[in-house]
Each structure stands twice: as structure tokens, then as C-alpha cells.
Design brief:
With 384 residues, the protein is an alpha/beta fold. It has two domains: 240 residues, 3-Layer(aba) Sandwich (Aspartate Aminotransferase, domain 2), CATH 3.40.640.10; 133 residues, Aspartate Aminotransferase, domain 1, CATH 3.90.1150.10. 37% of the residues lie in helices and 15% in strands. The chain is built from 14 helices and twelve strands. A seven-stranded mixed β-sheet has the order 1-7-6-5-4-2-3, with helices on both faces. A five-stranded mixed β-sheet has the order 8-9-12-11-10, with helices on one face. α6 links the parallel β4 and β5. The longest helix is centred in the C-terminal third of the chain and has 21 residues. The chain starts with 7 loop residues before the first helix and ends with a helix.
């Protein structure tokens, strides 16, 4: 079943996941094989070697491409492996425009590793499309954005930036990890490539690493398949199966994440010990109207300011149900200190410039009973 006329929840459960033709198993088997029997010289059943392709991985790639509305999906061993594969499209001398408020690991990869290969980067505030226009050079080949950003929850108008890119013949990629394709589908707004850390909401259970690139153009698909084959940084069959398992419940999980996230954001916005809350679902968020236009929900990622590192430390040590841990998107609520986790690789000066203070805390609201989440936050904040 790959009919794009079917609804999102139906596609999440069925696309790429037909019952096993040999046994009738309704779940795609985990094909733990490194190689396949050939039927002669250059004759095979569709698979030759598992670094190149694997039936379990193929099912996941088909599924994720369907959910994002892309032409092809390409999964890798982590989100960062997917980002690294993204820039293999480029050559020495090419220029990339990247959001200045993206995940710290992306900034680190671009500015400390990829730059050594002759590729140039400009980090700009993409929430204003004019900044993208001003940063374009004759050598610009890619604009990479993250919306909402990690952790400041700043939005970029996907359609506006995509229009700028396409006027200049530039590809646009979007990190859609925070929203998942259930709440935001960048390709519908003109994006050429969508990236996810599948470790997060797509998997949903904090038990497997992975990343994906969903492409819209044949040349991108060819490049990403070639990189998978050449570098071998592919997703294992078992972890592919874990994500297939997770995606089946993505719609119901995301609805609960969103419901809980809205209530936690409203609670934090009224709390006397919280100085500021960063959440697009709040009417006080400066891009609330944009969020309503390009997102189908607001999700469960929230950042908030408690005033100091000491206050943040006390809060993180006091939570009981919520886990103090670095990650997001699992069924359990996770809370972390951005300056020393996701953005530890970013200089203190740059962190201050983009608003990541020592008192900034990020929470990924899980799907526990909302009364328990709020009670835990209440008692932890009382410890400050």
C-alpha cells in the first residue's frame, strides 16, 4: 500500500509494510543478514549486500518518504550522519547558508569538520528571509534551516525562504525533527530535502539512534544512495525495525505530546519563578501566527528561563517523574540544560548572542498523565 490518497495514520501503519509474502506476518521482519543468495552473475532478487540495501531498511525508507511527501527516503546511523550525508552534495568552493540557531551538533559539524574540505558557511538568522537574501553568493548551493529551532523555538517561514532559494537555483533543506511529519511537512511549503533525527519523535521510545534524509529530486536520491553505499553509515535492520514500530503510533503519540505540551507551556507562562517561556503555541510567542500557518500543532518542545545556572541545576536535580537527560521526543518527559548539553560545543559568546543563557532549561514533554507532569514541575520549581 503506497496510495498517497490515504490518510496520514493509515500510511504510517501500512506504507512500505505489506504483510510478509512468505509467512503473512503483519510486521516487517528484521532481516539480520549481511548478504544474499545471487541467482547468477549480476542476477539477484533485489538485494545483493546489506550495506547497499536491506528489506527492513527499504520498508522504513519507503514509509518515511511517504509521510513527508517526498520521492525517496535514505536512513543513516544517526541524525548527525544524515546531516553529514546532506553536505556530500557539495564540492570545495561551494557556499552554504545555515540558520544561526540550529542544534549545536550541526554547527559543530559544519564549522569544525566540513569547513576543512573547502566548503564555506554563513550562519544567519533565517527567521527573517531578507537575511537569507543578503547572504546569498554566486557559489551558494544550499540553505539549511531548522524550524522550530533547538532550543529557542524560533520559526522560519519555510515557504518564504524556499521561494528565495528557488529564485536563485539553490536547494533548501529543513531539519523537521522537533515537529515530525505529523505536525509539519516542509516539502508542502517548497523544501527540497527534509532531515530528521529519527532517534526522537519518529522512534518515540528512546531506544535507538538514527537519521533520515527525504529527497524530492532524482539527483539527490542518487547522491544519498551512493553515500550510503560508499561510506556505510547506514541504519541497522534492528533499528530500522524499531523506527517502523515507533512510526505506527506516531499520530496518537504526537496528539498527546501536543496536548500535554500546551498545558505545560500555559502553566510555565504563569509561574512566578519563570522569567520567559519559548513555545510557539503561546499567543505571546512573536511567531504564533506563522506557527498556525505552517504547523498542524505546536508539539511538546518548550524552553524556559529560570534566571541562573544555580536555579537550573536545582530544578534538574529536583524532578522525580521527569528525567534529567539529553534527548527529546520519547514517551517520557525529558529535561535538560541547553548550555551544557545540546550547545556545549558553541562558544559562550555565541550562546549569549542567540539567547541560550545559563538559566535556560529545555523540556520535551512526554505523554504521561498531565497532572503528574505538572505536579512534578511544581515541586521541582518550589526547590528554587
Amino acid at each position: 500500500m503506497t496510495d498517497t490518497q490515504h490518510g496520514f495514520s493509515t500510511r504510517a501503519i501500512h506504507d512500505g509494510q505489506e504483510p510478509d509474502p512468505r509467512t503473512g506476518a503483519v510486521n516487517v521482519p528484521i532481516y539480520l543478514t549481511s548478504t544474499y543468495e545471487l541467482q547468477g552473475i549480476e542476477k539477484h532478487r533485489g538485494w545483493e549486500y546489506s550495506r547497499v540495501s536491506n528489506p527492513t531498511r527499504d520498508a522504513l525508507e519507503t514509509n518515511l518518504a511517504s509521510l513527508e511527501g517526498g520521492a525517496s527516503g535514505h536512513v543513516f546511523g544517526s541524525g548527525m550522519a544524515a546531516i553529514a550525508a546532506l553536505v556530500t552534495m557539495l564540492n570545495a568552493g561551494d557556499h552554504v547558508i545555515c540558520g544561526d540557531n540550529v542544534y549545536g551538533g550541526t554547527t559543530r559539524l559544519f564549522s569544525q569538520v566540513i569547513v576543512r574540505h573547502g566548503i564555506e558557511f554563513s550562519f544567519v538568522d533565517t527567521s527573517n528571509p531578507e537575511n537569507v537574501c543578503r547572504a546569498i553568493r554566486p557559489t551558494t548551493r544550499l540553505v539549511h534551516i531548522e524550524t522550530p529551532t533547538n532550543p529557542m523555538m524560533t520559526l522560519t517561514d519555510i515557504r518564504a525562504v524556499a521561494n528565495v532559494c528557488h529564485e536563485h537555483g539553490i536547494d533548501m533543506s529543513v531539519d523537521n525533527t522537533f515537529m515530525s511529519p505529523y505536525f509539519q511537512r516542509p516539502i508542502e511549503f517548497g523544501a527540497d530535502i527534509v532531515m530528521h533525527s529519527t532517534t526522537k519523535f519518529l522512534n518515540g521510545h528512546s531506544d535507538g539512534l538514527g537519521g533520515v534524509l527525504v529527497a524530492t529530486k532524482p539527483e539527490h536520491a542518487e547522491t544519498f544512495r551512493f553515500v550510503q553505499k560508499c561510506t556505510g553509515g547506514i541504519l541497522s535492520p534492528f533499528e530500522s525495525w524499531l523506527i517502523l514500530r515507533g512510526v505506527k503510533t506516531l499520530p496518537v503519540r504526537m496528539r498527546q505530546h501536543d496536548e500535554n505540551g500546551r498545558q505545560v507551556a500555559a502553566y510555565l507562562a504563569k509561574h512566578p519563578k519563570i522569567q520567559h517561556v519559548f513555545y510557539p503555541g503561546l499567543e505571546s510567542h512573536p511567531q504564533h501566527e506563522l506557527a498556525k500557518r505552517q504547523m498542524r500543532g505546536f508539539g511538546s518542545m518548550i524552553a524556559f528561563e529560570v534566571g541562573s545556572r544555580a536555579n537550573a541545576d536545582k530544578l534538574l536535580q529536583s524532578v522525580r517523574i521527569i528525567t534529567n537527560g539529553e534527548s527529546l521526543g520519547g514517551v517520557e518527559s525529558l529535561i535538560s540544560h541547553s548550555a551544557t548539553t545540546t550547545h556545549a560545543a558553541v562558544s559562550p559568546e555565541e550562546r549569549r548572542r542567540i539567547g541560550i543563557t545559563e538559566g535556560l532549561v529545555r523540556i520535551s514533554v512526554g505523554i504521561e498523565d498531565i497532572a503528574d507532569i505538572l505536579a512534578d514541575l511544581d515541586q521541582a520549581l518550589a526547590a528554587i
